[in-house]
Task: structure prediction
Amino acid sequence: MKSPVYITGASMIGPQPGFDRDGLERVVRYDAHPLKSIEPDLKRYIDPMRGRRMAKVARIGIGCGLNALERAGVQVPEAIIVGTGLGCMESTERFFGSMIQQDEMLPNPTAFIQSTHNNVAGQLALAVKCTGANFTYLHRGLSFTSALLDGLVQVGLEGARHVLVGGAEVITEDYFITQRHSGIWKQGSVTNLEVLNSADRGALCGEGAAFFVLDAQPRGERPVRLADADIAYRGGAEAMAARIEEFLQRNGLQSADIDLLMVGRGGDAELDQAYGPVEALFPDATVAAFKHLCGEFYVANAFGTWLTWSALATGALPAEAVLRGVPDRPFRTALLCDHFQLKDHSLVLLRS
Amino acid sequence: MSHDRVVITGMGIVSAIGHDARSNLRALLEERSGIAPITRLSTRFRGEIPAGEVQLTDDALGALAAPSSMRGWTRTALLGLAAIKEAIQQSGIEHRSPRVGLISATTAGGIDKSEPIYTRFFEEDPPDEVRQYIGTHDPGEHAERIARELGMSGMVTTISTACSSSANAMILGTRLIRAGLLDAAIVGGADALCRFTVNGFNSLMILDREPCRPFDRRRAGLNLGEAGAYLVIEREDLARARAARSLAVVSGFANTNEAFHATASSPDGEGALLAMTRAIQKAGLTAQDIDHVNVHGTGTLNNDSSEGKALMRLFSDAVPPFTSTKSFTGHTLGAAGAVEAIYSALALMEGAHFATLRFAEPLDEAPLTPVLRSSTGHRIRHVLSNSFGFGGNNTALVLSAP
Result:
């Protein structure tokens, strides 16, 4: 990078309470899934009448994005970049349903307009009058990290200031049902705080949003730097460890420098095995996880990035997130390692 | 020659006017439109609403794209695979290198295959003819499938920003190459015609019941189309080192947001003007350097009026020859930006201005006449290509002769 990239504001709306804060308020236990977002009062960002007519993904995405800007003290960012695996699937299904039911007799245009997948990024631009670049990535488990990488390049290499980057996702009821054969999500229920010990396949289904403001100048007393990000498709479990070593090397780091490893374990007994060799690379690091807190969904790694940022920004991590190695000093260098279905691989490096 | 120069070394396209770049060029020069009443898509509007359908059944398209197995391939993914194979072949790039990315774009993804059988997705134990398409609904699926089929090992991602999607894929690829993250990228988009988009645009009442008439006073909306269109772009020095022919330079680009309205363009063309101005600046050029414009030109009342005013504000009384090739292909949505980037590159390579079909009378508010007849032999150094989308998303690209 030509210039450092700092996270100057962050916000999260998800199944765990932490909106407009630097960390989780507490950890909520769920005995059934899908895990749903705890929707905060967003009326200072979205007119309540309008909010009720919006799809949930738009509501939480816009609310979370505007909160991140406010927390960064930024009124108008230079660019807005959103990642979402399903986009506005709720509106797509609504339009789809009425189209099929009414045999193509003029379904409701509002649902069609809202189904356009760049709706959240477009609405955010409209809300803050941002005429800069406006991108939306819809690429499964790489949706958020594609957006993050884009933002990193814009600020770190292309000289942009104040770039808003985030992920937002809501898994619709239809999608959850129709995907039951895919094995992504568990069919039965298990308590989220115990899901990582499962012996069976699938993760808990979740949803949520997390947004970050990136800038070349630090802000606040414990600034956190987005040092690097990497996305890759396929490669399997063996390639993960090799990829991490290459990633550390290009950042001038050794594995001993990482004091927090955040992994994307979700409770799928088979898929989680891929993290074993990764965790073994970092014997001295604290290992933490996040998908038992937020569930598995295409942009769960946005929540994971937020939790990692929170650990660096506050020095604290909820005990429920820690899998191994209780921290004895504040974290300085954290690596998030996540895969979605062993196909979409993401790495995010944060430093304080 | 610098690391900053990104060049096009391969192009592939399947559209309503041809199944490869050469046949697309021939149709453009011979002024043969691909817009006709819908015959292939199963919809109540068959025979009533015209569209730019690719004249291949799914099986014939499968034979053209030739995936290793047809299981789970949507029409969108097949359009993409066929176009990408052509682009790779022309370029000669080693696409399996981890330094080569795939950046694809779509608006409807694989909906073309899920919409006829959607209710069956909910069956207790759906048969394979249904089950193979359950996971093909989301936009990213086609890109993963194509990357897997072609054995690609570099970065893969999908952009969906409505009608500017694949122009934005061009921008991202160019930026990542300039930033040194990639050596080359396959960029473009694919969208199959489907009932979802036909009904969506029909519900907005912006579908012309006749073949569309971009920039004409009596225009009555757009025609939808379908296409797959991809370009291989790479660092100029690396292209030269492997003796690949450079077809055009991606010299300027800009993506801006109008922040005006969820679907409409501002009446004075502010957003279009900003995108065009910044793209020309980025190329280190001035408006006078632009020799040809491939306009967004959908044929809707709103777009053409707004874009026409923006052209007049940018070029004053010297608007260069401009064309809406959507009068040939229809609006191919997520593929449109790449379709028109390919046509823009062909205009550069052939010294060609392509016609805008069915134009009769200019607009009052922007009295501009597009290119009326296709012709070659012109000196064209720099082409501007516009792609505007819902959500106020405006993109302009500048392609230059190598």
Q: What stands out?
A: Chain B touches chain A through 66 residues (CB under 8 Å). The first helix of chain B runs from residue 21 to 30. Chain B has two domains: 6-241, 251-400. The domain at 6-241 of chain B is CATH 3.40.47.10 (Peroxisomal Thiolase; Chain A, domain 1).
